[in-house]
Structures are given as structure tokens and as C-alpha cells.
Amino acid sequence: MENAVRIQTFSIVAGSEACNARCPFCISKMTLPFGVEPKEPDVNWRNFEIACRFAKQNNCTTVMLTGKGEPTIFPEQVTKFLETLRPYEFPFTELQTNGILISEKTDVYSPYLNSWRELGLTTIAVSIVHYEPEKNRQVYLPYKKEYIDLARLITTVRRHGLSVRLTCILSNGFIDSPEKVKRLIQFAREHDAGQLTLTPVNKPDEELSQNKEAWNWTKDHHLSDDQWKEIQTYVHVNGNPLMRLVHGAMVYDVSGQNVCLNNCLSVQADAEDMRNIIFFPNGDVRFYWQYPGAILLQGWPQKKDSKTC
Ligand code: SF4
Description:
309 residues, alpha/beta, TIM Barrel, 12-stranded mixed beta sheet, two-stranded parallel ribbon, 22% strand, binds iron/sulfur cluster, S-adenosyl-L-methionine, Aldolase_TIM, metal ion binding
């Protein structure tokens, strides 16, 4: 590349497709077999170091450890990623999780939270669809009687000296109106979740049509244009705009609560800045989730796949 670009986020796909949740909109989930300890997937560490250097040289400020499945299923691998990242001194390092293991096995994960904080982790981003436990249970844990205690999870993470972001997927029948957004903002503020991101679930597309369950769910639950506009208007009227992020998302202060209105899959081909680079465990380094052609570096050969959001 001739000119320096500004990379906003360096996303790292940690773990495998294994997940302990069953979100109906997820195309990459893989059921965890009961009683079988899943094998930690191999990582192409050579290409990871190249991706770290590239992100650092292009002024990346934020690293996001995420996954096609749930990254906390492989906590030792999260530790290895953080150890490798540490010399690069990225200011913000975040872990995207459904929070289930941290909540259900706090005794096991508390030492990890401590060591991850020492290794530079700054933020735990918890995926949700609602402030009501039953709504979250329907999406994340339909095979269980109860969802986790979200308020207690936030307290646990905060007590370990880490920031919390609630990342809420907006969908029809869940958070789908200004009134529900207002209550979600109250919930975040009351429970000390410093940041709240609102992202509408993707409309069904060709890719999802390969997974009938995910396609049907998003067809039935994506927000209408009017619903999304009403929510945007509510946040805009009741909040103070603070910052427009590189990819067009807007950050507001709404009654003292940080709220980010996000649109997950926007493509800005003419932008000079690169929104994201994404490292995959096989060593592929890409710059859009949804386009196989957006590749910077090829790793070990692998089967083709992509992530919902
Ligand atoms: S969306 Fe995330 S939490 Fe839900 S099943 Fe997929 S990987 Fe798991």
C-alpha cells in the first residue's frame, strides 16, 4: 500500500465456531457437544504478528477480540492473543462475548478477567437483544429455563476494573421502538455499563438464505425503515451528538449514557480510511466481513465462510 490508511478497529476472530448460545440469526453457530472438551483451534501466529504490525503502523487504536462462535470457550487462547498483542500497546482492547460463561462460571473466569486486564484488556462487550431476561433467554438460551443475571455480570466485570459495553442487536419484537430504547438506556445507566451500541439486525440476504432458520428469523424480525428512523430520531432529539466514527456510526450522550447508533454492514469503497481489518485463525487478513474479495493476506487454506455481524 502506498499511502498510510487509518484503521479504526483490528478485529481478531478467536476460538472456533463453537458457541454455547443458539441465536436464531447466527449462521456460524456450532453446537457444543455435551461432556466433550472442544479442541482449541490452531492459529497462524506468523500472520497474526504481520497483522499486528500493519494495524500498529496504520494508527489503529482499538483491538476487538471476537469470534465466529463464543471466544471465552477457549480462555487460554484469549490469553495467548493478549500476550502477543501486548508489545504493540494498542490503547483499547475489547472482548466481544455473550457473557454466559463469565456469568455462570465466575469462579473459573474471575482469575482470567484479572490476568486479561493485566495483559491490556480494557472492555468486555456483552451481546444482548433486550434488557428483559426472558427476551434474552428466548434468543441466546432457548434450551435453558433462565438467562444469566445480566446486572450481576456487569457488576462482576466492573469489579475487575474493566469497562462494559452492551452491544444490542435491534430486532422487531425485541428492542424495536423509541420507548424500549429509552428503557434500555436507563438499564445501561443504572447498572454502570459505560457504553451502549445499537445495531439493527441485518435484513435477510443471499448469504443467509443458505441457512433457512437464520434467513426466516431475520426476515421476520428485521426493523422496518420507519422503526429504525424513529429510533434514530429519538436518540438524536434526546441526545447530544459527540462523535462520528470512521464507518459512519454516531456516538451520542443521552442523559449521561454513551449510546452509539451503528449500521453493521456499511461499505465505503471511496473512503481513505479502512474501517476494520480482520484476522482469521488460519491467517487470512481481510478488510470486510462480508466480501471474500476484501483480502490483504492469505493464510492456510480453509473452507469458505463469513460472519453475520
Ligand atoms: S450470534 Fe454470537 S452468541 Fe449468538 S450463537 Fe452466534 S456466535 Fe453464539
